[in-house]
Amino acid sequence: MNAYTALISKVVFPIHERLKSHTTLEIRRTLEKSQWWSAQEIANFQLKRLRALLSEAGAHVPYYRQLFAELNFQPAQIDSLAELARLPFLTKPLIRQHNEALKHPTARRLSQSNTGGSSGEPLIFWLGLERTSHDVAAKWRATRWWDVDIGDREIVVWGSPIELGVQDRIRQWRDRIMRSSLMPAFEMSAAKLDGFIAEIIQRRPRMLFGYPSALSHIARRAQARQVALDGLGIKVAFVTSERLYDDQRRTIEQVFGCPVANGYGGRDAGFIAHECPAGGMHITAEDIVVEIVDGQGQVLPPGQAGEVVVTHLASREYPFIRYKTGDVAVLHDQACACGRGLPMLREISGRTTDFVVAADGTVMHGLALVYVLRVLPGIAAFKIIQHSLTHTEVMLVRGDGYLENYPEKIIREFRQRLGAAVEVTPKVVDSIAPEASGKHRYVVSKVPTTVFQGSPTEVV
User: Residue 343 half-sphere exposure, CB side, CA atoms within 13 Å?
Assistant: First the structure.
């Protein structure tokens, strides 16, 4: 670690977090010790924290106080993590219905967050200081597994307007100090990709962070142009928010000359799991209990695929207890060669995000269209189907607050991204059926994406 990175990670960032009333540094130090506990010690710690969370929720949070009373559920009496199965699931519709009743009455400085989810259904929820501190600390711990730290030069290839919309002077100065540079992933034109490649060469980052699809697009463009990026000193490429495919991993590793570290989580469920250098996808078990359930809601053993259900143990102020993520994964039944006692996921198969192609051939992240719909109140669910370069269909399910001028707005916004002559067809439907796999896909593109002189890219 060089002197500047040490200054940022040991002094500047901890001060930054304390000014925000976060306890991130102390939590990270604790996590770096607990990761080496035995599996049984970690399970005992989980149970202790689970009792505390459930007791607090049952005593003070209106939604859970009523629920536990109806079930005659006594949190203090649970003696195993398996007893979580006695409680019903927390779902997105329940959160929307009981948003205020899920808040702890003493919660202060809650921050509003939202996510579209894989089905496109909007969800608004709240994060407390404790939850935020734990999630940041867990990510920080996982970052340090790869011999990089906060303060090392970083390039972030991202597309969420939550990040892109807050680039005010304070944020820009903070990023400069932390040596973090943001490259927007919405548009993947040849010119944009060339600009990204030039910036990566100029900045010589120690780490990359972004969507696997976006990083692999940049890598394939560099391959097509025969631009070498493997001698820049990049230590690791962190990827998240989408399923990481094997061909994407190989391409990123080959072009950038560094390993890929997969991460899994979300604003709603928290920082669930992260890959270590030995290849294990470790669950942040000190903070999160992961259950895998089948279609009937029965908990499945390791080795079987099912829906990921998360209980976040640091969510006292706005509890996430048995929260159904909509993702599909498989628990591992073996220990990792790295020696950490943290449980692992063997496979994550439930995250996919498409690219779409504009009429002029510009390849864009599917989220460029998703966010047009996600900010409109009253749209309960949606699905975008790009049938061709000249025709895109938008399926909409009405919700409370839906406005009749939405179709015109959607047509206008989509044409700004896809092309003025593109036919955009909004269609109001009663419901949107899932795919044959059971997953809801919010973007389906039937247009093959090619990487400008490179090989075809899989559209999922």
Answer: 23
Is there a contact between 384 and 393 (Cβ–Cβ < 8 Å)? yes
Using alpha carbons only, give the angle 193, 197, 200 rounded to the nearest 5 degrees.
Answer: 135
Convert the pLDDT of each residue in 80-138 to its tens digit.
999 999 999 999 999 999 999 999 999 989 999 887 544 445 688 999 999 999 999 99
pTM over 0.85: no
- Which domains can be identified in the chain, with CATH numbers? 3-133+266-348 (3.40.50.12780), 147-258 (3.40.50.980), 355-457 (3.30.300.30)
pLDDT digits (tens, 9 = 90+) for 362-389: 877 677 888 899 789 899 888 999 999 9
Collect all residues with Cβ–Cβ distance below 8 Å to 402 and sequence separation of at least 6: 377, 378, 379
Judge whether 451 and 127 are in contact, CB under 8 Å: no
CA–CA distance, 204 with 184 (Å, rounded to integer)? 18
Please give the span between the terminal C-alpha atoms of the chain, in angstroms, as a whole number: 39
Amino acid at the residue 308:
V
Query: What token pair was written down for 349?
Result: 């198969």
pLDDT tens-digit readout, 243-273: 787 888 999 999 999 999 999 998 899 999 9
Residue 276 structure tokens: 């270590």
> Residue 409: is its pLDDT beyond 60?
yes
Sheet holding 423-428: strands in order across?
A: 423-428, 391-398, 379-388, 443-445
Amino acid at 361: G
If one counts every other C-beta atom within 10 angstroms of the C-beta of residue 43, the result is 17
Render the burial of 372-403: b for 16+ CB within 10 Å, e for the rest: bbbebeebbbbbbbbeebeebebbbbeeeeee
pLDDT digit string (tens) for 147-187? 999 999 999 998 655 455 544 567 778 888 989 998 887 77
Distance of alpha carbon 39 from alpha carbon 42, whole angstroms = 5
